[in-house]
Amino acid sequence: MKRIVACFYIALSWLFASGLAHAADPLKIGFVGGQTGYMAQCDQPNLKGMELAVAQINAKGGIDGKLPIELIARDSRSEVAPSAVMAQELLSEGVTVMISPCDVDHSVAVAQITAAAQVPTISSCASTPSLASVGGEFMFINCTPDNLQGGVLGKYAAEQGYKRALVLVSRDTPYTYQLPMYFADAFKKAGGELIGTVEYKLGQQDFAAEVTKIKALQPQPDVIMTSAYEPDFPAFLKQLRSAGVTAAVLGSDGLDSPTIWGLGAVADGVVFSTAGFPVEGSSLAQFASDYKQHFGEESQTSFNATGYDIIKIIEAAVVATGDKTDGKSIRDAIDNLQDVQVATGKITYRGLNRIPLRSVALNKVQDGKKTFVSTVTLQPGEIPPPN
Amino acid sequence: MDYFAQQAVNALALGGTYALLALGLAVVFSILGLINFAHGELMTITGYGLVFSLAAGVPYPGALICGVALAVFCAVAMERVAFRPVRRASATTMLLTSFAVSSILHTAFQNFISARPKPVPVPEWLGGAFTLAGIQIGAIPSLSILVTVVALATLVWFFQSAQTGLAMRAASEDFAVTRLMGINANRVIAASFAISGFLAAVAGILWLFQRGSVDPMMGFVPVLKAFIAAVLGGLGSLQGAVLGGLILGATEVMLRAYLPEALLGFRDAIALALIIGLLIVFPNGLMGRPIQAR
Amino acid sequence: MLTVDQLSVHYGPVRAVKKVSLAVQAGEIVAVLGANGAGKSSILNACLGLAPRSAGSITLDGARIDKLSTEAIVRLGLTLVPEGRRVFSGLTVAQNLSLGASAIGKDRAVALGSLDWIFSLFPRLAERRAQLAGTLSGGEQQMLAIGRALMSKPRLLLLDEPSLGLAPNIVDLIFDLIIGLRKEGFTFLLVEQNAELALDTCDRAYLVMSGAVAAQGTPDLFRQNDLVGHSHFAASG
Ligand SMILES: Nc1ncnc2c1ncn2[C@@H]1O[C@H](COP(=O)(O)OP(=O)(O)OP(=O)(O)O)[C@@H](O)[C@H]1O
Ligand SMILES: [Mg+2]
């Protein structure tokens, strides 16, 4: 028995020694995400995007050709408490930058730990603007913030000549509640009228009561906006159309998935905002082909690209610091980034209190395909103020 | 009036689906004293069975049958592999086992199939609606109601007349004496799981028609609702489960239809409060037997 | 026919039956007597695999049955009418009887005319065939419990306190039936607290005290030695 233990120790110390003997220490990036549980449908694809970015950068010798990246991912099981535990674990493994889960609350739990350690933290896809202030000086948002998306959609709806809007909201998450409210703000500011707010619960499935309610409205809304995503959105849409409601339907980036345009005729004409559209020759088209080559399968969701973006942001920030890899320097560098080219387009943090400015692409579902409508960049005055 | 009639149809459709699910839980509970929280995963399995058999080129009706058969098979396998070894253990052990089965399946779906939803093609005609006596009824709610009625009628016949059905009712009253009749205990238990799998599959298909996709977490919310319905009806009572499901569905739909906007955020709390109120009046559920030592 | 050898039954740490041995020959009526809690029911239940046997063996016609499942034992032609009747109260009389035939299969029971036979033994059940068993009187429930067990035409019937809580005329009816059936070739092992009644009916008896056999022999032997005097039956009513 003793001999086995001794052998084990020798093997272990040899492993350590050989690990340390390698050239440069890599930049350790931690990712606490929901690899199982309800968030897995976002955080699993996020992780794949990150892996692709890391592989590409390391293939060229690392950031700036000299600093390789080591990505360490931990499963939060889509629960708050394990998120904090995993963050603590990753800190003791010495990560320099942290990526936190897709959901706001979970990101806040991680931020409480990383802020104290002065480790810059970027949420994989939480988009509630208040996260950046609640999470503290080291907390960054990656995805298009809700107020920006709501603003773009509200402006678009008014431009289409819609007069009366109805929003379908769920108080279960800020994303499904605040984003439609930002939409309503922008829509009203542009001259439209909000004629109703209908509520649902995440995972509700059955929208018969809500649809009957909408159907009974006189006059009918011209447009219905929601940031519901799967499985709620398809269920709602099918039931809405089968009841004969013909109002236009607008959605947000949660809809950017082939399973949405695969819904068939019922989804025809649905317009949704997302981080980008893979126009020929664009960075997103390049990403899609790289992704396919690396993983041998098509990218199924925009979360692949937004996960990729995070690593590119970190890369740009480290390059900007010169050679520094301490948390404070990287944080300051991210906070100063301007027009960084990432997979989904360009991203700016400078002067925005850690909430990114991104261009927003509008897409329309047509004949079972996602088609490009336009890319919108709002003027600062057009973005509804975060609340 | 029209509005109320429409909402009543909606209530019946949702209540019927809950009734099927609650009945599936109750069939197993009445015999084993086990609340099978992995029941919802049987719905999910139906969905994957449907998706994969369609992908393999099976025509739609055949794929539906494959989905149902897979759920029935998995229900029986679940009993054989997970629950039989702990059959004589305490109720808590069995409950925890069912939680474990449920989360193992979740994780397996997420890692071996996909964490993302898989689209389930739904026949085009199900998107339609027709008008009956001045009220417009969607094809899916009508189908839900029809399927629920047929499934319940078949079960009533089964439990009234079929020998296996009688044996299952007997087993739910007194398991030891049922064995004294020379009835094979394992077979009765397997039959109860098969029926619960069948009910989960039928409810699962109705659910899939509404949502158009299957994902690993699909069964999570429905099994909670079914559990509430079964408790409301009286755990172990089959009629109670159906009644509980209908009441829960109707309560949810009517609250969603008539609560003022300001209160809508509290509708689940209100629904649960109403149900707790009912349980205070009927501590054993609406049709439950008082729990007694035998 | 049935041999119980050195049987012990444990409920957790509690030993309810201690090395009990008894035997029943074909065509006999054997009684097991004893006070409340003596372990009588435990012995019968153990014979059918319903009580946890910790030691000893049980054989039927020379073959071990103590490792078989309850249903397998019943299919060998040995069955039990449990203490307290335990009819399926939510099922009708006819449904209860139909389940009773499960051991031999419904077709075989029809071929044997089991149902008509039971109804001829208990005409009251025939009148109430569509009634829920839970709404029957205590006596009728006991008739149903016995009728249900007889549906599979068992060779050996174990009866656990068939007279419990019944009016004297019903008790007489049931004991007359037992004597009648014995003449037709049925064998009985009977647990009774009503010692007088049991001794009047049986060929041999065992007295169980605190889980062990305290005495055994013919009814005459029991009576001569006053083995079932009041001292042993303090709790019996
Ligand atoms: N399931 C059980 N779990 C624990 N102890 C038990 C169980 N069944 C019986 N006992 C105990 O075993 C002993 C014998 O019980 P048993 O029922 O065999 O007695 P009995 O002779 O049939 O009594 P009675 O005349 O009251 O029916 C009693 O002390 C009883 O408390
Ligand atoms: Mg007893």
**Largest sheet report of chain C:** 6 strands, mixed
Query: CATH class of the largest domain in chain A, anyone?
Result: Alpha Beta
- Which class best fits the helix and strand makeup of chain C? alpha/beta
Q: Could you give the count of β-strands of chain A?
A: 15
Work out the radius of gyration of chain A. 22 Å
Unreliable spans of chain C are 230-237
Per DSSP E runs of 2 or more residues, the count of β-strands of chain C stands at 10
Count of helical stretches of chain C: 10
Description:
The complex is a heterotrimer of chains A (387), B (294) and C (237). Chain A has helices spanning 2-21, 40-59, 80-92, 104-116, 131-134, 146-159, 174-189, 208-215, 232-242, 258-261, 283-295, 302-320, 327-335; strands spanning 27-33, 69-75, 97-100, 121-123, 139-140, 164-169, 193-199, 223-226, 248-251, 271-274, 340-342, 345-348, 357-358, 360-366, 369-376. Chain A has two domains: 22-144 and 279-356, Response regulator (Rossmann fold, 3-Layer(aba) Sandwich); 147-274 and 362-382, Response regulator (Rossmann fold, 3-Layer(aba) Sandwich), CATH 3.40.50.2300. In chain A, helix 3 (80-92) packs parallel to helix 4 (104-116) and helix 12 (302-320) crosses helix 13. By secondary structure, chain A is of the alpha/beta class. Chain A is built from 13 helices and 15 strands. Chain A is 42% helix and 19% strand. Chain B has a domain at 19-218. Chain B is 72% helix and 4% strand. In chain B, strand 2 and strand 3 (135-138) form a beta hairpin. The N and C termini of chain B lie far apart (51 Å). Chain C is an alpha/beta fold and 237 residues long. Chain C has two domains: 1-77 and 154-237, 3-Layer(aba) Sandwich (Rossmann fold), CATH 3.40.50; 88-153, no CATH class. In chain C, 35% of the residues lie in helices and 27% in strands. Chain C has a six-stranded mixed beta sheet, with helices on both faces. In chain C, strands 2-1-4-5 form a four-stranded antiparallel beta sheet, covered by helices on one side. In chain C, a hairpin with a 2-residue loop joins strand 1 and strand 2 (14-24). In chain C, helix 3 (93-100) packs parallel to helix 7. Chain C is globular, with a radius of gyration of 17 Å. The model of chain C is unreliable at 230-237 (pLDDT under 50). Chains in contact: A-B, B-C. The B-C interface holds B 163, 166-167, 169-170, 173-174, 176-185 and C 48, 50, 69-71, 74-75, 79-80, 82, 86, 88-91, 95, 98-100, 102-104, 106, 148-149, 152. The complex binds adenosine-5'-triphosphate (ATP) and magnesium ion. The site of magnesium ion has 4 residues of chain C, from helix 1.
